């Protein structure tokens, strides 16, 4: 019985180790000149979008393009380039798309101000709708003589 328990436990441990190895992410083995360069390069790679994956940054993406771009960012930071130079290089090569936070320029005003404009428009429409509802007067309907007599009759019944 104990022999079977040991075999089951070892089989479970083996399968867990295989599963954990299957979901591991690739590790970049680039050696930086300093820890500051490594920190800066990782922050930059986190702020740049993978052109192939489109919804992942360079660190999270496993695509070959992201690996190449990560290496490029690492090398540029180690070469002494500042953040603006690295970002300028990436945007000149891949366009504004690689930036998760696009720059505030004339061509991106709609992107930055569009949500605010839509919110303001929605609030304006809501305000006008509520205002119209409040302004609309309740039309007083005139009732006929017969209806008035029936109403008086019902009201007198309630008084008794």
UniProtKB/TrEMBL annotation:
- Does the record bear Magnesium in its keywords? no
Q: Which InterPro entries match?
A: C-type_cytochrome_biogenesis, CcmH/CycL/Ccl2/NrfF_N, CcmH/CycL/NrfF/Ccl2_sf, For-dep_Cytc_NO2Rdtase_NrfF
Alphabetized GO MF terms: lyase activity
Instruction: List, for all copies, the residue spans of the domain called CcmH/CycL/Ccl2/NrfF N-terminal.
Output: 15-155
Q: Which domain of life is it from?
A: Bacteria
Segments spanning the bilayer are: 109-130
Which key words tag this protein in UniProt? Answer: Heme, Iron, Lyase, Membrane, Metal-binding, Signal, Transmembrane, Transmembrane helix
N-terminal signal peptide = 1-24
Any one Pfam family here would be CcmH
Please state which protein family the record places this protein in. Answer: Belongs to the CcmH/CycL/Ccl2/NrfF family.
PANTHER family noted in UniProt: CYTOCHROME C-TYPE BIOGENESIS PROTEIN CCMH (PTHR47870), FORMATE-DEPENDENT NITRITE REDUCTASE COMPLEX SUBUNIT NRFF (PTHR47870:SF2)
Q: What does this protein do?
A: Possible subunit of a heme lyase.
Query: Any idea what this protein is called?
Result: Formate-dependent nitrite reductase complex subunit
Q: Which organism is it from?
A: Shewanella nanhaiensis
Q: Which gene encodes it?
A: nrfF
């Amino acid at each position: 019985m104990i022999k079977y328990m040991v075999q089951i436990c070892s089989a479970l441990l083996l399968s867990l180790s295989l599963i954990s190895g299957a979901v591991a992410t690739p590790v970049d083995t680039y050696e930086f000149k300093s820890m500051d360069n490594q920190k800066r390069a990782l922050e930059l790679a986190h702020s740049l979008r993978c052109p192939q994956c489109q919804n992942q940054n360079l660190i999270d993406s496993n695509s070959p393009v992201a690996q190449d771009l990560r290496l490029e960012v690492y090398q540029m930071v180690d070469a002494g380039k500042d953040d603006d130079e690295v970002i300028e290089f990436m945007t000149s090569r891949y366009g504004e798309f690689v930036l998760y936070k696009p720059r505030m320029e004339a061509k991106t005003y709609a992107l930055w101000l569009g949500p605010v404009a839509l919110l303001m428009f929605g609030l304006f429409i809501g305000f006008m709708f509520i205002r119209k509802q409040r302004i609309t007067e309740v039309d007083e309907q005139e009732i006929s003589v017969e209806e008035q007599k029936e109403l008086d009759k019902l009201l007198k019944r309630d008084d008794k």
